[in-house]
Structure formats: structure tokens, C-alpha cells
Amino acid sequence: MTKTILEAKKLVQNNIFYKISDISENLGFETYVVGGFVRDSLIKKSQTDIKDYDFVTVGSGIKLANKVAQALEGKNKVQIFKNFGTAMISWKDYNLEFVGARKESYSKNSRNPVVENGSLIDDQKRRDFTINSLSISLNKNNYGKLIDPFNGLDDIKNKIIKTPLNPDQTFSDDPLRMIRAVRFSTKLNFNIDNDSMKSIIKNSNRIKIVSNERVVDELHKILSYSKPSIGFKLLEKLNILKLILPELTNLKGIDEIEGQKHKDNFYHTLEVVDNISDYTNNVWLKWAALLHDIGKHPTKSFNKKNGWTFHGHEFVGSKMVYKLFKRLNMPLNEKMKYVQKLVLLSSRPIVISEDNVTDSAVRRLVYDSGDLIDDLILLCKADITTKNIHRFEKYHKNFEIVKKKIKEVEQKDKIRKFQPPVSGEEIMEYFGLNPCKEIGAIKEAIKEAILEGIIANEHKPAFDFMVKKGKEMGLGN
Ligand code: CTP
Fold first, then answer.
1. Measured from the CB, is residue 453 less than 6 Å from ligand 1?
2. What is the set of domains in the chain, with CATH numbers?
3. Cα–Cα distance between 302 and 273 in angstroms, integer?
4. From the CA of 82, how far away is ligand 1's center (Å)?
5. Helices 265-277 and 283-291, interaxial angle, to 10°?
């Protein structure tokens, strides 16, 4: 214990904390650093990647923030959230957040807290988890002292996520905390304590009163970690996943007819998300991995001849992506289109890796996926979850062949950012045409000829092809 007290002291031997301590003293406040900074630096003991500092003051958080902003070098703007009594300063690449210590309770059916000023312990009580309520004093009389009324330090040692109060109360105060428990469990590889687990299962329906934006924010974070499956399995176990992403829970289970089974697409999906997390931090690519099979639920069918099939699941799945993003108030922008396109194309590289791949199949894939080709290949590699070592190695080997082919085709034909080698104007001028549908038809024929490998992706052969094609169509000058 003494060791950790010394460690806590060390954590705040830093100019920014000294400055805040002085300012707080001058204002007659008591101030503490709390939350993620304390938790993560006690766990990791390295502070270099911690960029968010939370301060709680027995006094006005807004007043303190204003004074701190003036005292720090640079022009520092203070963002004030009056309703919550919080203020934030973006300073260098840090976010400094200040809040006045509060006693808080929430009305049953809304997220609007009824707030009163409180003491440090009041404030610690109303926080989500014991590991997040650990505070270090910045006050002169006990500078660096760790204040841990809920044994957060023991919970860090025992790797436990636990609420400071009765979990029903903590989760009822803010039901998002049920997902946050899962998120911290995924991030830190901690277990959620049993009573908290039971309480989440009991209160899971309350997640419905939380805004979609806040839920999605937590999902993004779960996806950003190295093993997101931990979080999604937990959300499923706690009855929350079906309320926020029923498309995923619908993939659960294995059906069997006449001795024929299909795989459990839920657990398969989670494996794919973990696999892709070994290679990328791109959270949208991880969303694509998470959603790549959602079309398998509505398209599932069985017939004696072919067994289980999921015809067109990629197309159906890509349509479902739009609905899902819309429902969760996620941006319906190029990120959504990116996810949709990856879902739509998600089986294509596998198909060409299984057959004797032709140049034209590769060219078409590169054309259809454009700049997404590398991410698509990554997704498809991550999609290989077979436990048969022989097959696993074979598929991976085939992917290396596909990758090589893509490179060759790319260098030769420059398909990735395909620009028609003959323009509409040239076609009109050559055949003496006004705008008409024949121009589109000729351009399409040129593109097809290039993709089929009939002509090279260059101006001269494309122009000659245009002349020939135009003649066939009865155009002339
Ligand atoms: N907090 C809470 N209940 C919430 C959100 C936040 O009690 N619903 C408190 C916790 O004490 C938390 C602190 O506010 O530690 C800061 O919240 P946040 O920035 O979301 O999380 P961090 O703990 O900083 O963790 P991370 O950096 O991983 O997001």
C-alpha cells in the first residue's frame, strides 16, 4: 500500500498539476485529479499516451478552468457546458476537463440530472466504477495523496470492474454505464463483478433511454481495442446486444437439417473482427468486419441439393448497413458508403482465390473496389477462420497469389483509379454526334474491352476500338 501511495505522489510531479494546485489554493478550492488518468497510470505506470485529464474541484469547475486557461502558455479557449457544470480546455494535445464536485441524482425517465454541490466523496460515489473514482489530491496539505474510499486500487489489482454504490443505483443513474462496464472490461481485460453482471442483466432494457450517439461512441471504442470480441460476447451475454444490434444476435446459432449444419455466423463474425484488429486501427474497416455477414440471416435457406445457402447475402447486407446506420444516428456519409461497399464486395476476393484466377477477374475486382482494394483483401484474409490447418494455409497462400496478381494488373493496366482513356467529347467529335446514348454505350464497350483484357488501358488502342465499335453501330463521319 505504501508503495502505491508513493506511486500516486509520483504521478502528479508535473508542472501542469503544480500550476492547477496553486490556482486552486488561491481560489480557496480543493482540487483532485480523478478518472482515466489515475486509473490508467496506476495500471500501466506510463503516462505518455494519456491525453485526457479529469479534475474535480470542491468549488466551481468553470472558475477554476478559466483561471487555468489564463495561466497556461498559448491562447487557450475554455469550452463551457453550463448544464453539467463542466469546462474543458484543449491545451497542446491534451484535454483538461474540470468539474465541480457534485451530488447528483437522476430522474427515472430521462438523462437530466438534478445536481447539487457536494464534497469529494459525494462526487466519487456518483461515478461509474471504483477504478474510475480513484482520486489524487492536488491540495497543499496532502499533495499526491491517493483517495480511494471504494477500494478501487484493490479492484485494479484483482482486475475487477465494480460500481462504487449498489449497481442498480449506479446503472440506473446512467444506463450507458452498462456498456461502459463492458467497454472497460474489453480495454483492460478485467472481469465485471458478479453483482454488477446480475444488475446489468436485470436493467438491460434501460439502455433504450440512452441516446444512440452515446451508445455508438462506446461501440466505436470497443471496436478500437485489440480484441473487440470480448466486448461483443459480453454484450450478448448481458442481453444488451439484441437491443442495440439485433442484426448481429440474429446470426447466432447453428441450424441442422438432415445432418447438414452451417457455421455459427455470430461467433465467426467476432473472430473476423479480432483477426482484422491484428492488422488495422481503422474503426470503419472493423465495422465492415462486424457487419460483413449480417445479410446471412434474411437470406438463409436450405435445400437438399445444395444444403445451406445465403444467396445474395452481400447485397442484402449492404442494404442493411444503411438501415442500421440510420437507426443508430450514425453518419450517412462516405464512411457508411465505405462500409456498405466492403460488405457488398466481401465475397469477391474469396471467389477468385478459390478458382484458377484469370487476369480479367482480378481486373474487374480492382475496378469495382477502386481504392478499397487493400482494405477488402485485408477483410477477406481476416474472414478465413477455418480450423482446418490445411485449408487455412491453402486459402492464405491463394490470397498471396491474388495479391501478386492485383499488383501486376495494377502496374500494367492502372485500373484502380480508372479514367476512361477516350472521352465523351472525343467520341462526339469523331462521329459528329450531339449528346446521345450511343456515347455512353461506346464508353461502356471500351471499359469492358479493357477489363476483359481485349485492349490495353491506353489511348491509342481505345481510340481504334472506338472507331471499330462506332462503325459496327452504324455511326460514321
Ligand atoms: N464517468 C461516469 N459515468 C459516465 C461517464 C464518465 O462516472 N457515464 C466518470 C468516470 O469517473 C470516468 C470519468 O467520468 O473515469 C471520465 O469519463 P470518460 O472520459 O468517458 O472515461 P475515462 O475514464 O477517461 O476513460 P477513457 O479515456 O478510456 O474514455
1. no
2. 1-158 (3.30.460.10), 162-244 (1.10.110.30), 275-413 (no CATH), 424-472 (no CATH)
3. 27
4. 18
5. 160
Say whether 58 sits in a helix, a strand or coil.
Answer: strand
Q: Considering the chain, what percentage of its residues have pLDDT values greater than 70?
A: 94
H or E element at residue 81: strand 78-81
**Residue range 24-54, pLDDT digits in tens:** 999 999 999 999 999 999 997 566 678 999 9
Q: Probe ligand 1: pick from 38, 51, 54, max atoms within 8 Å of CB? A: 54
Distance between Cα 129 and ligand 1 center (Å):
9
Distance CA 178, CA 60 (A): 29
Ligand 1 center from residue 195 Cα (angstroms):
21
Output the nine-digit C-alpha cell for 464. Answer: 481504334
Distance 10 CA to ligand 1 centre (A): 22
C-alpha 408/C-alpha 331 separation (Å) is 36
Distance CA 295, CA 229 (A): 20
Query: Residue 123 Cα, ligand 1 centroid: separation in angstroms?
Result: 13
Task: Name which residue sits closest to atom 8 of ligand 1, judged by CA.
Answer: 177
Distance 120 CA to ligand 1 centre (A): 16
C-alpha separations of 334 from 37, 147, 331 in Å: 34, 46, 8
Whether 97 lines ligand 1, by a CB cut-off of 6 Å, is: no
435: cell is: 449528346
Reported confidence tier of residue 9, pLDDT bands at 50, 70, 90? confident
Sheet with 94-100: list strands edge to edge: 78-81, 86-91, 94-100, 52-58, 30-34, 135-137, 146-147
Q: Is the predicted pLDDT of residue 411 greater than 80, yes or no?
A: no
> Residue 357: its pLDDT value, please?
73
Q: Report d(CA 245, CA 328) in Å as an integer.
A: 9
188 C-beta closer than 6 A to ligand 1: no
Q: φ and ψ at 33, to 5 degrees?
A: -95, 140
Q: 167-205, pLDDT tens digit by residue?
A: 999 999 999 999 999 999 999 999 999 999 999 999 999
3-class state of residue 102 by DSSP: strand
